[in-house]
Design brief:
The protein is α+β, with helices and mostly antiparallel strands. It has 17 helices and 16 strands. A hairpin with a 2-residue loop joins strand 4 (76-79) and strand 5 (82-84).
Length: 475
């Protein structure tokens, strides 16, 4: 029988206390400090530009309808003068390929530029932080307010901030739905309390997502939810422009008097003020090197440059540079020269080719589509005069935003003719099914299937012409 293990006391073994360790780091709220400078100015320029486009584009009109409208009910997408149908899904695939290649190219050249300046998460976080600063104050005031006990004044400020946040978020959700339901119709429905269930759901869902992501989950979206942070490393190389800290110049860091000779004291240019960390929206220390949490917003560059100006040191302790530039001490001309490298040239060439091909395709795109379907109820039948008749259904799509009349014709067999009206009128941007009967002499072709072609031509627009093949059955 097995003997029980001796107690530690009986063997003289030292008892080590067990400590519990959490697998997840406790979240600490980041109080990002506001900063000004040339990169902050560019960020706000992009904020204004993107939001003017987003909020304003759905109100523009084109040919008496909304300029940009993705009408899911009618299954038609309007983009200014272009009308896309479900059959045009090819162009959506091309758009996705162009977007992916553009992301690869921009990332290879200058890192996470999109994340730092034009990503919706960054843009709305910037807007929400501006509202927060306006109502609660800058970083020290917000930290003091959050640490203070709840009072009527604190409650009023918090309520005012969230009221403005919710107003912006709901307007954002309303605008989003306005790209799928005509915005003026949607506005009328809102004012008359006649919103449909799906419009109501998406306005509040998108608004809630905006309020939550930009108000509460700011850096967490970038660090944990966005996949781009995880795979950006495979798109970087030593010649990619990134936000970098010049450790050779800045170390060893330390506080000092403005008048002190820090070089004689063996110190670098970094005064260890920590402002670069305070302004970072994701709360990282760029002095620890490039990290996946860095979104490339350059707030730390603006903050550090201001400190360098106050100390009388050259700017650029934190700057846009590359790994090779830091190691080889390159200047701006050498950095720019290395932007044109095989990787970026390949991305650029492929991207230009696809964009050019897509542009040519859109330019040459016929504003007419025709699908030919055989009437399966009657494959072939004999009619008066001993003629053989086949019945077809032509699905004619008029992609132009004007009504057009089309002439129908058929070729391919001797003496083939239409036994129905050869002129049909189609409303603008509409689809119409046309039943067509085709007749030939019994000896016009071989028994079985014979190749024929339907020709559809727009009257007064000879260049609008489609020729589709079909089969004529002879018994």
């Amino acid at each position: 029988m097995a003997q029980p293990a001796p107690k530690p006391e009986s063997t003289g073994a030292k008892v080590i206390p067990i400590k519990e360790a959490s697998l997840y780091e406790a979240h600490k709220k980041i109080y990002a400090r506001s900063v000004s400078g040339r990169f902050a100015t560019w960020r706000w320029i992009l904020v204004w530009a993107t939001q003017i486009i987003y909020y304003g584009l759905c109100w523009l009109e084109w040919n008496g309808r909304q300029a940009v409208l993705f009408d899911l009910v009618e299954r038609k997408f309007y983009i200014f003068g272009l009308v896309f149908w479900p059959q045009d899904v090819f162009y959506l695939a091309v758009l996705l390929i162009i977007s992916a290649l553009s992301l690869f190219l921009f990332t290879a050249v200058a890192g996470r530029l999109f994340c730092g300046y034009a990503c919706p998460q960054t843009v709305y976080t910037e807007v929400f932080m501006w509202v927060e600063k306006l109502i609660e104050g800058d970083r020290p005031a917000r930290m003091k307010l959050d640490a203070a006990p709840m009072t009527s004044g604190k409650l009023a400020r918090k309520a005012a901030k969230h009221a403005v946040w919710l107003a912006i978020a709901l307007w954002t959700g309303f605008t989003f739905v306005g790209y799928f339901t005509p915005i003026k119709t949607l506005a009328s429905s809102v004012l008359n309390w006649q919103l449909g269930p799906w419009e109501t759901f998406w306005i509040f869902f998108y608004g809630f997502a905006t309020w939550g992501n930009a108000g509460f989950m700011r850096e967490q979206v970038c660090k944990y939810m966005c996949p781009y942070a995880r795979f950006q490393g495979v798109m970087f190389d030593p010649d990619t422009l990134i936000v970098t800290y010049d450790a050779e110049r800045g170390e060893p860091r330390g506080a000092r008097s403005k008048k002190a000779d820090h070089k004689a004291a063996g110190k670098g240019d970094c005064v260890d003020c920590g402002i670069c960390v305070q302004v970072c929206p994701t709360g990282i220390d760029i002095r620890d090197g490039l990290q996946y949490e860095c979104i490339g917003c350059s707030a730390c560059i603006d903050a550090c440059d201001q400190v360098m100006d106050k100390m009388g040191y050259p700017q650029g302790l934190i700057r846009y540079s590359t790994e090779h530039a830091l190691a080889e001490h390159w200047g701006s001309k050498q950095i720019v020269a290395h932007i044109l490298r095989p990787r970026t040239l390949l991305y650029g060439a492929v991207l230009a080719t696809i964009i050019g091909a897509a542009a040519v395709g859109l330019t040459m795109r016929q504003p007419l589509k025709v699908d030919v379907l055989r009437d399966r109820a009657t494959l072939a039948r004999e009619v008066e005069g001993g003629l053989i008749e086949n019945v077809y259904r032509l699905q004619i799509m008029n992609l132009a935003e004007e009504p057009r009349r089309f002439a129908l014709a058929v070729t391919g067999l001797k003496g083939i003719q239409l036994a129905t009206e050869s002129i049909v009128e189609i409303p603008p941007a509409a689809t119409q099914a046309v039943s067509v009967r085709v007749r030939v002499e019994p000896d016009a072709g071989k028994r079985g299937s014979n190749l024929i072609h339907f020709e559809v031509r727009a009257l007064n627009h000879d260049e609008v012409f489609v020729r589709e093949k079909a089969s004529f059955l002879l018994p």
